[in-house]
């Protein structure tokens, strides 16, 4: 499938009061190349393997393939990943008809908070909460695969 | 799981008379790095995603994870792979208690024929058919991931 999403910096922690869900995520990369990203993720004690292709020119559309895999297999696959496991807490907030996912990063990426909104169409209008800052959809340095090798605290 | 196998060059096509099965295989790599190889394979119209880790010091043992995936998804994932799809016909021959897989490569790797024997134990004895040549288990240039980027006809 093709995933369309916009990414933003987050300017305050006010989203925490609006969140209806919270998940802990650990993930690593079997390939962090944006042309063929292969990600191993553990989210709420479930394993996932995700493959993403190159982004469109606008940066908002990207091919994405994802399958759930057994947790124990995900744990073993994480040990094969490139160095730089990402750990983050994901909050979910509803805004209009959209679900906004806010990732609060930990460890070497702590201090960074990113919000992502998944869209049906690249030109869809978004109702922006006050804590949503600058759009960074096209900035490759905010890709988790990039953050894995070049963590926020080293910027 | 850990896969233990020995790899050999093949010196004649006499194996074809002994083969009890024959499959066409097309495969590409989402990562050809031997530390975390990610392979997409289509074999007999079925899709597979396989992840392999680094080999042991002897080259015979290697972590391997494999899941079957829908054929249509495998076809799309092949388009994301690094350049250099590998196409080969695999013959299966029984020798003593072992199954020997013989890969006859096509396209840019034509001229190369490799045999692989999967073992339960690295020190197991093998009954060698006359067409089995030099052992190349430890030679990384015979890895399919290497052949994908550096095909046999360019050697």
TrEMBL record, chains A, B:
InterPro entries: CYTH-like_dom_sf (IPR033469), CYTH_domain (IPR023577), NeuTTM/CthTTM-like (IPR012042). SUPFAM superfamilies: CYTH-like phosphatases (SSF55154). The active site is at 29 (proton acceptor). PROSITE patterns: CYTH. Pfam families: CYTH (PF01928). Residues 1-149 form the CYTH domain. This is CYTH domain-containing protein. It comes from Flavobacterium aciduliphilum. The lineage of its organism: Bacteria, Pseudomonadati, Bacteroidota, Flavobacteriia, Flavobacteriales.
